[in-house]
Amino acid sequence: MNKMISVTIVERLAELPWYTEGPAMDAQGNLFFTTLTGGIIFKMDTEGKLSHWAYAKCPNGQYIHPNGDHLICDSGQAGIARFGPDGERKGYAIKDTCDGQTLRAPNDLTADADGGMYFTDSVRESGMVCYFGTDGSQRIVGKGFDFPNGIALSADGKRLFVAESYRNRILTCALRGPGLPDGKWEEWARLPEHPSGDIVQNLPDGVRMGKDGLLYVAHYGMQAVQMLDEDGMLVDTVRTGYPLTSNLCLLEGEMIVTGGYGEPGPGGVSSIKL
């Protein structure tokens, strides 16, 4: 059943000239997010102070490692940049190719329990889902997708979920080991469609797996985050207030949402109480 949530508490944390992406929070409670064409990775400290933390050509999805390093997809450099906790660039975790295949636009990423990274390479019709391990291994987990975007692992790490933007759906595959699909990719959920019929008004973007077992999907053109249960059924919709909703991160009783009013901007970051 689709039950609409009436959101009463939406707090705008920042308004910026650029469309925003890649929200993540470190162990100290500092919030980080990216600005794509702005080229800036922002830091918002626990007092709400905003600062330029680091720079990249087109910073997109972000993951903060337990050691404090940041891995940030740079869609403009065909790689995933690594930054230290102080924002100092350490080079690239992966760049240009993965397992012999050319990378074009790394978009979003997620880590398994061993620190191996799954990420999407977002292009129309021939996009890929890729993996690289801490041991230097590289694998193509899937290819031939129509703009694979957000990516998440199940709580047990045995199943991978990917938003296929231009088909307005969530795909899944089982894993038999790090970066090793166990069988074929399957459609797990078909998302609501915009009444206009315009495909660009759909486009699932970032995804996160919640501790409540729900998959949270930033639905780019639908101004919402969709919440899907373990069977891929839509159970709730949260209105974000952004015409274009790009991504999210989940905190205790709170969701941080990025996006904006157009691309390349303006944009912002909001907190939504759950």
From TrEMBL:
It comes from the Bacteria. Keywords: Hydrolase. InterPro entries: 6-blade_b-propeller_TolB-like, SGL, SMP-30/CGR1_Lactonase. Residues 20-250 form the SMP-30/Gluconolactonase/LRE-like region domain. This is SMP-30/gluconolactonase/LRE family protein. It comes from Chitinophaga caseinilytica.
